[in-house]
Amino acid sequence: MRMGFVFDTTRCVGCNACSVACKQANNLPATVWYSRVLTDGGDVADTPAGTFPHLSQRYFTLACQHCANPACTRVCPVGATAKDAETGIVHQDTERCIGCRMCVAACPYTGVRSFNWQEPAFELGFALGEADAPTHYKQTVEKCTFCSGRLGRGEQPACTVLCPARARHYGDLDDPESEVSHLIRTKSTTRLLEEMGTDPSVYFII
């Protein structure tokens, strides 16, 4: 089993519902986002590519790629970041993390991890989202975990459920009958920074 995402850039409308759903389900601190929506035209939100009047716009969501060969797990000195042998999900244990940020330095995907420099502050005075949402600590690294708590209950990640355009698909990449495997076989897909040898578990339909 190897769990992963297929993200359809031809369907995404850049609404950020996935990012907000993730933030709520995981009770993320005010300054922390596990998933961001980017465009191929620039670093600013909703920036088109090309030169007027010949413009185009395509959205990409960026979060942990849950690599089959993750660079982050090899450098963590305390085993706080580790790949699950059964699912292939790369977990981040905030209770074990010592805040050295070696995983951040080793990961080729810029911005997929957040570091809590201060005691986490929240938008509201009470916890949101899932009852088993991770605890957030000062001086620790955080990232997407594919909503592991929801998966344990047989549910889909929050970002997939809330996507109004049905641009996100989650499933077992090793199962040839799964929806994600079918999409990879029948659509033109790419993965980010494949040349780095990380073997990411997130595919983008282009």
Describe the structure.
By secondary structure, this protein is α+β, with helices and mostly antiparallel strands. It has one domain (3-205): Alpha-Beta Plaits (2-Layer Sandwich). It has helices spanning 17-25, 71-75, 102-106, 148-152, 158-162, 179-186; strands at residues 3-8, 36-39, 49-51, 54-56, 59-62, 81-83, 90-92, 113-115, 141-143, 168-172, 189-190, 202-205. A four-stranded mixed beta sheet has the order 10-1-12-11. The longest helix has 9 residues, at 17-25. The mean pLDDT is 93.
CATH architectural category: 2-Layer Sandwich
- Count the DSSP helices: 6
The structure class reads: alpha+beta
Q: Return the CATH topology.
A: Alpha-Beta Plaits
What is the overall pLDDT average? 93
Residues in helices, as a percent range: 10-25%
The total tally of domains equals 1
Strand content: 15-25%
Number of strands: 12
Succession of helices and strands: EHEEEEHEEHEEHHEHEE
Weakly predicted, low-confidence segments? none
Question: In a few lines, what is going on in this structure?
Answer:
By secondary structure, the chain is of the alpha+beta class. The protein has helices spanning 17-25, 71-75, 102-106, 148-152, 158-162, 179-186, and strands spanning 3-8, 36-39, 49-51, 54-56, 59-62, 81-83, 90-92, 113-115, 141-143, 168-172, 189-190, 202-205.
Chart the SSEs and their pairings:
Elements lengths: L2 E6 L8 H9 L10 E4 L9 E3 L2 E3 L2 E4 L8 H5 L5 E3 L6 E3 L9 H5 L6 E3 L25 E3 L4 H5 L5 H5 L5 E5 L6 H8 L2 E2 L11 E4 L1
Parallel strand pairs: 1-12
Antiparallel strand pairs: 1-10, 2-5, 3-4, 6-7, 8-9, 11-12
